[in-house]
Amino acid sequence: TSARSSPATMALPDPDDACDAEDVAATSCALDRFSETADVRSLIASLPEIYPDGTATESAMERFVAIMDRYQEQPHLLDPHLEWMVNMLLELNRSEKTPAPAVHLGCKFLYVISKVRGYKVFMRLFPHEVSDVQPVLDLLCEQDPNDVTTWQTRYVLLLWLSMTCLIPFDLSRLDGDLSREPIMDRIFTVAKSYLKVGDKCRDAASVLVSKFVTRPDVKQKRLGDFLDWSLTTITLTSDLTMQGTFLLDGILQSLAQLFKRGKRDDVLQYAPTVMKCLDQRQLSENKQAVLRKLGVKLVQRLGLTFLKPRLAKWRYQRGSRSLTLNLSQSQSSKPVEALTPAEDTEVEDEAYDIPEEVENVIEQLLIGLKDKETTVRWSAAKGIGRVTGRLPKELADEVVGSVLDCFSFHETVNAWHGGCLALAELGRRGLLLPSRLFDVVPLIVKALTYDEKRGTCSVGSDVRDAACYVCWAFARAYEPNELKPFVTRIASAIVITAVFDRDINCRKAASVSGTFPHGIDILTAADYFAVANLNNCYLSIRAIRDLAAKALHNLTAKDPDYMSATVLPQLLPKATAKDLHTRHGAILACAEITHALSKLSGDPVNMQQTPKLVIVSYIALQFISILCLDDICVCSDCVCVCLIADWQWLIDDTLKSLHIGSHRYFIHPSFHSHLFVCTDFLVNQYTDMLTSTEVLTRASAALALGSLPKFIINNKLQQVILAALQLTCRITPKDVTFVEARRDAATAIAQVCKSAGVCARGSPDCVLCAGNVGGVYTVLLDCMDDYTTDSRGDVGAGVRAAALSSLMEVTLLVAGTSPELIQRTMCCATQQAAEKIDRFRAHAGAVLLQLLHSREPAVPHIPQKEELLSIFPPAGYLDWKAASQAFPHITQLLRLQCYQYHALLGLTVSVGGLTESTVRHSSQSLFEYLKGIQHDEGALVQFGDTLLRIFRDHLHNDRVSVPLLKMLDQMLANNSFALFAAKDNHPFCVDLLALCKEEIKKSRDILKLQSCIAVFCGMIQFPGDIRKTVLLQLFILLGHSFPVIRKAAASQLYETLLTYDDVIDPAVLDDVMTLLSDTNWSSGLETVRTYRNQLCDWLELPRPKLLAKVQ
């Protein structure tokens, strides 16, 4: 019986299965001992001889790392061997004859050991005698903190020095040489200096500080000073720089370690001050996740300092803390009972006073549970557990209630995850009493299936994983009788998660989460290793979407009647659901069930005789795809010419009526490779569909042509396929709204070219070659000018994005094309990367960097490539969607002559756009560039000429001209062209005025007119005859037929004259200002034009005259 028809056969997968996968063998990789003793001894012993040889040193290091990495998951196996390994390596450091390179090499080996075993166990092996203090300190002081190749040495020495600080003698006794700085001061200075470094040494320095400052002799002299310095630094240091972040990180680590290791009586007096400083700093709102985590860690340590060290006597205890007692009770017939506190203990418990700062601590920890970073939430959850363990019963129950508030329906996925972690910590510590399980269990069951949609994806896998951790903790924290009322619900939810969750971590977590009914049988079928393999898990024990359908295929054989009569009717409405994910899953399921039913009947599938529900086009297409992918087409017994014709008819019919974005999947090459129909007829049919009056039919036909295999394309590439697709890409007045067709045609062009292949001297009808590549580039570059808009907005952006992707694919395909085409492609990518829509800017930026950084193949003829690489280095990361990151890089392209025009054109629509953040960041970056060329006349003239060329090229194109006028207004207001104001009638100003006049000529666009008024007012700063011409234009607008334009012109002219008080003769200035401010410019045209003419007379300007209309 095949795996399709028998879901129970895990060990025998069906070779006919589409997802043919091997079963997972749960082979144990656990080690039982450290077996490389001889190898490690020889490696360490050879260090003094091989250190001068770089190759031998690197080989030895790699060998040692490979050995130690085997024990990453079982580091305790190293414990019997750590002492001799560390001692052998320390002999190199202790010997005065050992050269510095050998010392550094030995410390690298020591660091590898500490990384595998953990620094807490590792550092105990360091010798900490009095004689070690001075040499270790001296060697550490000799190191260069900025040497990136020897940081392991400094890390090891800092840990060693922290161990020498444990000597029980006063450090002042070691100050033999009075001329030198006291050892206490030297250690203190060194420790503080390493708190601000950017490497691992910062962590070791925090350990050193915590051990050093808590010494009895040091805490009296240095504890207060260190805390004052720390709090001052936290308050004054900015986290906007890397150095500031490193310093804050080191200080917060040190304080957390200090309050952990220090005696409560010593540090309690400082705790309120530190807490106040943290509140003022508001670390919970910091952008750096590591600082938020350390803030939470420090807050919980402060909370434990405020509370007396005590073990909550009210907590739930399963069994005894004595292992002997537990074993003896387990062997007897009497069950182990949970221990409950006595009533007098509870009375004594409630009498304990809680400092008021604890409320603030708990509040900060609850905020940390909702942080966006997992590490912060995990630290906050542990803090909740630790602090709650020292609270009275009533207050602890209030904390539990606050944690349960995280599971509200309006809370985010982060809050749910943090709440689960906190409940697990409370449960395993016995702080979640059984009475609370009635409130907790329903929430955990919900968390086990938590899934929240965000756009086209969903989140919640971390919540489900944490919910499994809660179940794991509960199973070990409570007696079976306490969980008995809830065991069925929890067990069912865990099994479903273990076998149905799409995330491997959740499946694994659920598989080890509890001890429940039939637990052994369930774990045998769905153990930790079995659920790890996706195909095995889906086909044998779970189902979801694509592979869920195959699980239903397996189940069909068990009860065909039920599947056909009950399941299929339920799936059919979902096949047309609005939710794409539901629709996709239903389509797959219907196809697989139908396939299984046909196998049971033993007859080939006849589409014309298939039940009504399979005639649904979606399902039928997916069914065809499954048969093609399963290689059924090659079986002459199963497929006939009639069936192929029926399939082709269904595909063609669907292409005319449906557009679901998946035609390339439905029309699989394995299907076309077995077509018996004429390939010429097929291509002609699809090219004819490109002239349809239905936009979706055209789009479908374009994608269909793009999915054709090479043997069909052959001899038809240029004259038929590319010609038809190129025609579809062009905009004509009749089909300007056919945006989707142009988008898919642009995509299909690249697909056809990739399918056909490349040969420079080949035939244009067979391959992409010198004879047709120019036409391909031309049509794709023309698509980059598609800015079609409708009620949905800039719908042409989809065409531009598809064309840009195709340009990249074709360029990488024919890397050696002409320099002119490469330059145009790079310039188009530059322009799109500077425009205002975030997602398309990110797409264009990714294409630009892909072409720039491509190595296989490398793209030749990129203009000014070295300058581009300096702006966009290969190792750098740039979030193109973030305007604050993208535009500072884009504006650097303005200094590259080849890219200046297109970069400025893209910036124009961004600076003059509507989105606040885009406008702010793009204008800031642009003005930073202009500020840099403020006194460079040549660069400023070139920039001005480029600006005028853009204006000239896009006259009366409102998409560019209106944002350009807005940008000019900002430039003039920022005195960006102050250099031109030093010369009368500068050519830039004259040309700009002429273009502005031409732009608003006969215009009735209020937004454009208002923007031009602002530009005219800004141009008043330019001296000469141009100033009179500008004033005359403003006076003409004072008599405009639109009252809103008259008012805007009067208001802005008034403000401009206040700014430039030397423009008008002082003798008439007051009269002009009074007339502008007091006149009601909304009055009738005859009235306001009289006032306007009065202004012209005062300023000795000719009165505007109305032009007679030409009959």
UniProtKB/TrEMBL annotation:
Highest rank taxon of the organism: Eukaryota
Gene: TBCD
Gene Ontology CC entries for this record: adherens junction; bicellular tight junction; centrosome; lateral plasma membrane
Pfam families tied to this protein: ARM_TBCD (PF23579), ARM_TBCD_2nd (PF25767), TFCD_C (PF12612)
Sequence similarity: Belongs to the TBCD family.
Subcellular locations according to the entry: Cell junction, Adherens junction; Cell junction, Tight junction; Cytoplasm, Cytoskeleton, Microtubule organizing center, Centrosome; Lateral cell membrane
GO MF annotation terms: beta-tubulin binding; GTPase activator activity
Protein name, entry field: Tubulin-specific chaperone D
A biological process from GO: post-chaperonin tubulin folding pathway
Key words, A-Z: Cell junction, Cell membrane, Chaperone, Cytoplasm, Cytoskeleton, Membrane, Repeat, Tight junction
